[in-house]
Amino acid sequence: MTSTRHVLLAWTFPPASVVGLVILAGSYLQGVRLVSRGGGQSNPGRRTACFLAGVGVLALSLLSPIDTYAEQLLSVHMVQHILITMVAAPLLLLGGPITLILRATNPLRRRRFLRPALRSGVARALGNPVVTWTGFAIVMWGTHFTGLYELALERQSVHALEHLVYLAAALLFWWPVLAVDPSPTRLLHPGRILYLFAAMPVTTFLGLAIYGSDRVLYPHYLWASGRIGVSALADQHLGGAIMWVSAMVVMLPALGKVLFDWLDAEDRLAVRAMEGSAHR
């Protein structure tokens, strides 16, 4: 059995991951600096905190013992995927990166390049809630129930690409829900609630399918988990349960946020209506 000390010290620092995380955090902070230097309203502190927290969660999932043991235990691999798709991605979007880019860019480039890009057909397609929901479902089910998952366990380059695909699909998935940044396709609050309810089965049934299997789905874990004295099938059941429960743990707070934003928006409309009546 592996000692606790050995597990806690099993950090790795792949150059590509480290450089990517540094560039991500550094670019955001540079944008914050440019906005503050421009003399306008500074970037809200809570947004900066959310974005940096998202980068921190990515670092935890890609550099910590979670990444080291993801190749030996399916349950740990599931935790890693949940951190990337359900925690890091929404935190990054709560940082309002697109809004920050628009504010940090000079007006000419913003008018000529950024705003047209946000209104383009590609942006409309990528921001369409049907596309984002479907894409997330395809990525989650397609990677877990095809040969891609086993291939990612055997080849580090495929594993890294898998993480990028998960992050991209999750960012697009959460974009219409959080609605912090401008989007070519705006989803009203009732639509966001329906969107989240429809998304719950994606991870719930995926977790149940993995949990309910009576055979080891990924042969790699037969020997990998055995090396550290863990039953591959028992670990698979735990991994499925983690995926199953994560749907409720993450989606319910997300629903709460949407409801809170909806009520807040209604309150603001009511205040504006009363002010308008008072001025007449």
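Above is the first protein from milestone M3; the second protein from the same milestone is given next.
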Amino acid sequence: MKTVFRYIFRYEEAIDVVTDGFVKLFRGISSFNFQVPEQDVEKLFIGWMKRIMINAAIDRLRKKSMLPEVGLLPEEAWQVADSHADAEQSLLYKELITHIKKLPPNYRAVFNLYVIDGYAHHEIAVMLDIPIGTSKSNLSRARVLLQEKIKQADTINYASGQ
């Protein structure tokens, strides 16, 4: 859900995307393979599943012609336990995602795919059906806008004494 929330901000729609992702996962489970027996199969499977969920979210955005997502996520969506994150990391993650969700949809999608999910620009270009140069440009602009939003939030928090 957290992966899909970075792309789809309506809770009900995110649930639909996750459901679609799991349908794709179960239909394609026979195509999941790993080469070396010593590899950590769980990590490989989680990575494979994450890629399916990202593709399902991108497919949904494409169907909507990358329309901006609006609306708030319910607070319980952030309460999903993550055994690898402490309280401070969870708070920082929530703040970062809040700032990312304010980016224009084309910038947000490229930023998520490149920075958070680790895709290369040529992969993003194929996924979003845009030129590689547009992917690079959108990433650059997203970073600038995100830095401005974070600076604004820090200035507000500093001024209010938080």
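Note on the second protein: The two ends are 30 Å apart (CA to CA).
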